Amino acid sequence: MIGAVLVRLGEAWLLCAGIQLLLWVVQERTRNAGIVDVGWAGSFTAVAGLFGLTASSERASFLPLGIVVVLWSTRLASYLVSRGAATGKEEGRYLTLRHNWARNASKRFLMFFQAQAALAAVLSSAFVIPFITEPWDEGALRATGLAVAVVGIVGETLADAQLAQFKREPANRGRVCDVGLWNYSRHPNYFFEWCVWVGFAIYGLAFHGGWIALFPQAIILATIFGVTGIPPTERQSIQSKGEAYRAYQRRVSKFVPMPPKGA
């Protein structure tokens, strides 16, 4: 079992590394490193396809999960493209890296792109087991996992759409988005993204060795709370919106959607 998992993840890493190498070449011409995020999100569709082609379990074991992975991956990649991650102006965080790395920017971005490929391969352990072995449950865990993941996809899509609509209104320029799901959580997009990975984990628990799927959702949660998620987002929001965002922090839940204080 462990050997089969390692082989599949090794193949996933090679595939993701190839995708990110190609995208690194693209950003060398466009000078927009944001395309790495599109590659990271979209690579899971490619990995799910690879796992499906090399699957040793029955199609009924992995196909429902594979479809959800592709839906989530494609939706996220498409959303990032629509925000200009591949064709628009380079985001501030990547501009800062390009400035700080100066003459070594090309080589360091290559390493950065490959680090994202390795991360995608590691996170693919969230859904690799169903492609290798058969489930032991009667279907309840798998159904629950799919339901949680689909709720996550729908919630994240809705949160992204509400934020985009809010930003399109000229009257909202400089204001804090507190409409829809954003009135119940300061980061509903992150919360529902995590739900997707929790759904993958629950589905995986229906298989022997499925406990492996618990680690990726823990990595996602740790990233949201400690690395590239909530902390830098809120620092930027305080910097740009000041007291208005601090009042929003006092009123609205940080992560899990809950009724706002004073509602």
Please sum up the structure shown.
This protein has 263 residues and is mostly helical.
Note down, in words, how this protein is organized.
With 263 residues, this protein is mainly alpha-helical. It folds into two domains: 1-134, no CATH class; 136-263, no CATH class. The chain contains ten helices and no strands. Helix 1 packs antiparallel against helix 2 (35-53), helix 1 (2-30) packs antiparallel against helix 5 and helix 3 runs parallel beside helix 6 (140-168). The longest helix has 29 residues, at 2-30. It is globular and about 55 Å long.
- Taking all Cα atoms into account, the compactness measure Rg is 19 Å
Characterize the biggest β-sheet.
none
Number of strands: 0
Q: Which structural category fits the helices and strands? A: mainly alpha
